[in-house]
Amino acid sequence: MGEFEDQWEDEFESEEEYVEAGEDGMDVDDEDEEEEQVEETEVWLPNKKLGKDEVLEADQSVYEMLHTMNVTWPSLSFDVLWDNLGEERSTFPATTYLVTGTQAAKPSDNEITIMKLSSLNKTQVHDEESDDEDEAEEGDPIIEHRSVKINSGTNRIRATPKTWSQNHLVATMMESGEVHIFDIEPQVQSFDIPGAQLHSAQAPLHTIKSHGRTEGFAVDWHPTQPRLLTGDCAGKIYLTSRNDAGQWSTTGPFTGHTASVEDVQWSPSEPTVFASCASDGTLKIFDTRSKTKKPALSINAHPNTDVNVLTWNKRVNYLLATGADDGRFSVWDLRTFGKGKTPEPVATFKWHTAPITSIEFHPTEDSVLAVAGADDQVTLWDLSVELDAEEEAGRRELAKAGGMEVPSQLMFVHQGQEQIKEVHWHPQIPGVVVSTAGNGFNVFKTISV
Known about the structure:
Elements: E1 4-6, H1 31-40, E2 63-69, E3 77-81, E4 94-101, E5 111-120, E6 142-149, E7 154-159, E8 169-174, E9 179-183, H2 185-189, E10 199-200, E11 206-208, E12 216-221, E13 227-232, E14 237-242, E15 248-254, E16 261-266, E17 273-278, E18 283-287, E19 297-299, E20 307-312, E21 319-324, E22 328-333, E23 347-350, E24 356-361, E25 368-373, E26 377-382, H3 389-402, E27 410-414, E28 420-425, E29 432-437, E30 440-446
Parallel strand pairs: 6-10
Antiparallel strand pairs: 1-23, 2-30, 3-4, 4-5, 5-6, 7-8, 8-9, 9-11, 12-13, 13-14, 14-15, 16-17, 17-18, 18-19, 20-21, 21-22, 22-23, 24-25, 25-26, 26-27, 28-29, 29-30
């Protein structure tokens, strides 16, 4: 399987057991027919090619919820909007609000789309021998939308957190190089107004023009303050802040990268610190108080390949994860940075067979993260898992049958989408994952997380 390194050394502890997926049970009278049907069904691993007339079908028994949504225009990026429906919700049907920016065929057809997805019922189906009566619920999801017209495709969109923003603000990094900040609170509120307008022309609260005509992909709102980071393909990062009078101002650039800044993220615990990664293969740590606006720390995180994405662990604030163009993702301990030696990742995984396009730590489970790749997979990982001898033997048998090694930390592989671009955990509905791809959105919750 390529490379797998594990130096975790008890950074995470877990008492959860790993449940290995098996074949679906069948209840037929004819034993020969049963054997024939079993032979026609097999475990699929990503190194296998589908044969003629073969198709992949999701095993509905391993999803508590799975819904798909097609869209008119694809979206490279989206974000989950905070709501007032409660924290740590676990009951069905579920409701979620999303915001996304389109990649339309013509610039004038682009828009910011605000969506309310409701009646997201439980879809899990158990086998006939199961005693569990909590089966799939009736009814189709309800999709409502509002839109704001824009004149350029959106590379990255991010919404403000509930911790400091009473209104729903979104920042959109455009193909044109401009960054627009919109107040979409009227659109969010309009879902409760019968007959509300679906489409609107709306001026942004503020437009950042510091990037000139250079587009970018790196955007992140501060977790506790009205401050926004934006990075571009020229390797520059700017900081835009709002004062008490509601006025926006931009400072920078922060420099040090020699290629396109692909992602940027604020520290969850240090209010002046942020991390960035770039196509130059580096991960850098900046402090906004620096007069030189140069990085305080820098490592060659993924040599000779682009570093596409990063995620900062919100529960264990010295842990960062990065995903690269060669399909690898690594987890870093910031406590090892700057001590005279070249830092090594505490874990590196090579499961995906194409560039990592998105990565995100779970908001409340500190050892769990979601990873998306250009190989049309969303994978869920629990870095705390250590299998016992029997479980490890079973995993080896599965690997032998499939012709590839399956890391014990890999909890789930979700497929069915093409050109997956971004994945997010829902911060208020534990375990719910939303992903966007060239053929639309998936909203799902697995039995693994």
